[in-house]
Amino acid sequence: MASKNVSNIYVNPAKDNFPKTDGGVTIVIENKNAFGVDSKIKSEKFNETKGIWETACVLQGSEGGLMPHERVEDFLLSTHFFKKGAGKYRIYYEFYKATNLPIPYTSKLGTLTTSVFNIK
């Protein structure tokens, strides 16, 4: 599975298929920048009947940011992000430069969606 990137931030599901019994999905994120990064995230499920991506979990601020040159594995819980059950999913990210401003998410770096993965 190919990693996707925007603004020197690389994102990739850890594998193509996740059994429901795993309880969630592992996403690998790497910040290759010399500055910290914050993100917003939502999950999308493919509707086979309509042939479109539909929001499975609305856009929300991520629980933790990325430090400069940091690589993390994020575990997204099925009970929250994938409660629509088995099927094809992808994760949508918005990335922002981390700032000390009182208002977060002001310096947008870009957006991307992960490669598609399955929950079985």
* CATH-scheme architecture: Sandwich
* Arithmetic mean of pLDDT: 92
Q: What's the total number of strands?
A: 10
Number of domains: 1
The parts where pLDDT drops under 50 for at least 5 residues are none
Describe the structure in your own words.
With 120 residues, the chain is mainly β. The chain has one domain (4-119): Immunoglobulin-like (Sandwich). 3% of the residues lie in helices and 55% in strands. The protein has one helix and ten strands; from the N terminus they run E-E-E-E-E-E-E-H-E-E-E. It has one helix at residues 78-81; strands at 4-6, 9-13, 17-18, 24-31, 37-47, 52-61, 71-77, 87-97, 108-113, 117-119. The strands form two sheets. Strands 3, 5, 6, 8, 9 and 10 form a six-stranded mixed beta sheet that branches. Strands 1-2-4-7 form a four-stranded antiparallel beta sheet. The longest helix is centred in the middle third of the chain and has 4 residues, at 78-81. The two termini are 17 Å apart. The mean pLDDT is 92.
